[in-house]
Design a protein that fits this description.
With about 200 residues, this protein is an alpha+beta fold. Helices cover about 15% and strands about 35% of the residues.
């Protein structure tokens, strides 16, 4: 067994080790509004469930050069955001939103997505997504970094409204194959839903 000390590895090497090991990771496509009303869209794979009661999800948004990314900045200022599940039908458009644009320039025209009004918050969602969660910011934490400088913003969002394509949802269950979610691997690689199997939990 090879043993490595993360404290003796570079930030880049730690990143590569983590993103190559913790796979697959679901991909959140997140919309936020700037204070001037520009719609920001960006994908994140440091994303997961926090709680079902109340329903909450987490987003860890890595800073660049110590500065907050637009998504974190907007979510903290407005206290709202929308999370969409990325799937095979929209992953290429979602990938386009990862382009670095000026702060007030929206990724909407670049992606080809269509914005749709939310029901409970002011931030629009993406019409093409099969599942989206309207969220209000519950908690935020500044984490990591050297010499006290934060390296990421951890956002906890409370889901206030679900939206789902009706064909996916039956008897309170979501059909994973009709959803066709994609997941993030390392580098530029993604994975689709492949082989599945069932294990009964011990009593």
């Amino acid at each position: 067994m090879l043993t490595l000390n993360p404290n003796k590895m570079s930030e880049r090497d730690n990143y590569k080790f983590l993103t190559g090991s913790i796979i697959p990771r679901p991909v959140a496509l997140v919309t936020t509004l700037s204070v001037n009303g520009s719609l920001n869209i960006a994908p994140f794979s440091y994303f997961n469930i926090v709680s079902a009661n109340p329903p909450m999800i987490s987003l860890s948004i890595q800073r660049r050069g110590g500065s907050k990314k637009d998504t974190a900045k907007n979510a903290l200022e407005k206290g709202e955001f929308v999370v969409h599940i990325t799937d095979e039908s929209n992953v290429e458009a979602a990938n386009k939103t990862a382009a670095e644009l000026p702060y007030e320039e929206s990724e909407l025209p670049l992606s080809g997505f269509e914005a749709i009004d939310s029901s409970s918050i002011s931030v629009p969602g993406i019409k093409e997504a099969k599942i989206r969660f309207e969220c209000k910011l519950e908690h935020s934490l500044e984490l990591g970094g050297a010499e006290g400088e934060p390296a990421c913003d951890l956002l906890i969002g409370r889901i206030v409204t679900y939206h789902i394509e009706p064909s996916l949802y039956h008897d309170g269950k979501i059909d994973p194959f009709k959803l066709s979610p994609v997941s993030r691997l390392a580098g530029n690689d993604y994975a689709s839903l492949g082989k599945t199997f069932t294990l009964n939990r011990p009593r």
